[in-house]
Amino acid sequence: MAAAAGALSAAAARLGHAVAAAPEVRLDSVRGLAGLFREAQPREMAEESIFRNLLDILMSASNEIEQVYKDSCELVDLDTCLLLIAECFRCLRNACVECAKNQHIMRNLGLISTSVHLIKLLHGIQIKEELLLTALRCSLQFLGNLAAGNGDSQNSIWKCAFPDLFLTCLMYSDEKIVAYCCMVLFTCLNSEKVRELLDPGNLAVALRILKVYKEQLESEWSFLIVTDHLLKCPELVKALYAKLSNQERVTLLELMMVKVSEKNPVNSEEMNVFMRHADFLAGCFQEKCEAVLKLTSAADAEDEEALVTIRLLDVLCEMTSNNGQLEHLQALPGLLETAIDTLRLTHLAGKQAVNIFTATHAMTGQEEISHPAVGFKSHLIRLIGNLCYKNKENQDKVYELDGIPLILDNCSIDDNNPFMNQWAVYAIRNLTEQNERNQELIAQMEEKGLADNSALESMGLEIEKRDDKLILRSVRKKLS
After folding, report:
1. Cβ-count burial of 268 within 10 angstroms (0-12 exposed, 13-18 middle, 19+ buried)?
2. 373 and 356 in contact (C-beta within 8 Å)?
3. Using an 8 Å Cβ cutoff, are 442 and 408 in contact?
4. Which of 163, 213, 299, 445 could form a disulfide with 451 if both were Cys (CB 3.0 to 4.6 A apart)?
5. Whole-prediction pTM value?
6. CA distances, 412 to each of 208, 255, 305, 423 (Å)
7. Tens of pLDDT, residues 8-29
């Protein structure tokens, strides 16, 4: 400890003498301190004077850059200036790692506003050389470490940087600058600040985050901003969705799928958020479901509106697989009817001409299996089955809409719809559970030859005549 104290004291003294010295001398003294602050002991022992001296150096560098702006002053050595700025930010970045004391000192000295001002100045330098990018990266890393676990610092950074600085840095082509900016944004966000993104002037920040995630799928911070913050505000999701392109909507829906698929227990507030998402997505699906019919044409195999419809169905299937959200979705007006109508339209389209909705049993390669609509009909049947689970009203609704014959007509194995047979079995079970009228309809269809007996057997069902009534009952499958 004595050795660390001695080394820190000597480095602090060198820094104090270097503040007014030549840039190269300042650079060496700051570099020495940055190395010491990699260790916890020197960080804890650091005095305010060190950070005041670093602030003076940054302010001096800021003045020099402003001089370059004003009169293209050739006396300023820009490279050395950028090196010095980067090293100061490295030093500050290292000094506030898990050290609330230093975070507090830096914030009170005004280092946040000075840093934000300097970042904006650096952005204005019309060069793309590595020294500039390094200085910007280090500045954002410093703000991230300063904000970590420190609510006061997070609020101060937000006040100085939102929305302009975040938007500026998120627009960079340099992936590290964008990632570090996302880190700072993620660290500063909370539910109250997320609501500020709803302001029309601030929505651009949220839109840019989604674009960043879409363009840089490796970006963990942009992923976390969306899943841990943006998706917790249904109003914001609606506002974003309205502004997004179809490709970006697909990206947002894929992120929602990740969130909905989580098996973590949720509290009542989180469940309320999911239900509001469910209302919105069900409405979008009902409005745009027929767009999927464009996929009957090979020329429209990548129609973006149709791809959105497919993703909407995926998310609704997942939501109805969760008991908490299922009851809410079962009661939504129009959703079940839309699913049955869409199944009927796609089934009919597949019978009228050969296309992706035509049942096929002989795979001749991988051409069709990669089509975006593969599995769409089976997912519709899955949704219908989920919506009828232990729900007499929906079971009866499917009966009234002639949905049962439609599902039975989709029991065959279909390479374009993997697992369709299994989802049909599941749907028929849910439709007939404690529902005599639905059981009787299927039994009558089988007797008239309108339902395939072998299909019923494959479902573990058989027809039995009892007191002049046809009964559909479960049987154990025979061992082959």
Report:
1. exposed
2. yes
3. yes
4. 445
5. 0.89
6. 45, 33, 29, 11
7. 999 999 999 888 888 888 999 9
